[in-house]
Amino acid sequence: MIPKSKLSEIKNFLEKSENPLFFFDDDTDGLCSYLLLKKHIDRGKGIITKTTPNLTVDFLPKVEYNRPDFIFILDKPLVDQDLIDRINVPVIWLDHHGPYERKGVKYYNPRLQRKSDGRPTSYWCYKVVNENLWIAMVGCIGDYFLPEFTKEFSKKYPGLIKKTNLDKIKFDSELGKLVKMVSFMLKGKISEVNEFIDLIYNVESPDEILNQTTNRGKLIYQKYEKINRIYSRFLEEALKIKTKEKLFLYLYNTTSITFNEELANELIYKFPRKVVIVGREKENMMRLSLRSRKIILPPILEKALKGLDGFGGGHEHACGAKVSKEDFPEFIERIKKFISL
């Protein structure tokens, strides 16, 4: 866990900042982490980091343009030392992957105290600010974690969850629907994503979106319905696959929106005894999301990628990977072998 003294330290840095710059990951956990911190002080600039798991010197122009007095990095697994070395303001890095060693940065990670503590970044951001409970719940459920403040949320927002079962909440509740909406809003062109982030930043309660009680709520709901129609077609196609093998593999074609993570999460819910791989081809690389309920994936993924053109990693039961189209058949055969041992 992250000690209370360290959480207070983060809060002090946040409240001290006059022009903070936030870098955050392009998923519900990353977005909700950003929203929780920024709404607490209502100032600063947020930059969503799409398509890459790490921050490199390519992001330095963003720093130079915004001229921040503090930088907050949220839910990003990797930050290049070269980038940190070229930043001349305090860098606060809050994450739940790794952990990793870097110099010249204030690094906060629950895994530093206990390796198995992978509670989401949005969970810790909520512990820092202690406000906007519904945003914290969206971030935690989106990252497949059931926090201890779930009952408090249920009392404050009756009807959004019926049972405190993680699967039921994520895939069969109004809160789960809200999580899906937020996830879908992060799809598409960066300009459209930023418009959505501006909309949800001003949302005061989940009712605005779920019941479309405001114009911004209606806009979010309408975009969700549009994207969900596309997603539902892919999910329906995947559910038609019948296999007795331990590996459930679904590949789909798309030229615009990718649903790897969402499809993998829903398919492992439908087939909890399988190892699920969902992927698509882009630029001669197979981009993949892997899920399991019991099998620890990172060591298997590492062995399966050895000597191949590809890379990957992630959490114990949820990983991402990229493998060249040429090496993909060999990669799949290795996965089948290793999960059967």
Q: What is the general shape?
A: globular
CATH topology of the largest domain: inorganic pyrophosphatase (n-terminal core)
Mean pLDDT: 94
Uncertain segments: none
Using the coordinates above, name the CATH class of the largest domain: Alpha Beta
| Helix/sheet category | alpha/beta
Helix tally equals 15
Tell me the domain tally: 2
Largest sheet: 5 strands, parallel
Helix fraction, binned, reads 40-55%
Q: In angstroms, what separates the terminal alpha carbons?
A: 33 Å
The share of residues in extended strands comes to 15-25%
Number of strands: 12
* Proper CATH architecture of the largest domain: Alpha-Beta Complex
What value does the Rg take, in angstroms? 20 Å
Strand order of the largest sheet: 2-1-4-6-7
Written overview of the protein:
The chain has about 350 residues and is α/β, with parallel strands linked by helices. It folds into two domains: about 5-175, inorganic pyrophosphatase (n-terminal core), CATH 3.90.1640; about 240-340, Diaminopimelate Epimerase, Chain A, domain 1, CATH 3.10.310. The chain is about 45% helix and about 15% strand. The strands form three sheets. The chain has a five-stranded parallel β-sheet. Helix 13 (about 260-270) links the parallel strand 8 and strand 9. The longest helix has 25 residues, at about 215-240. It is globular, with a radius of gyration of 20 Å. The two termini are about 35 Å apart.
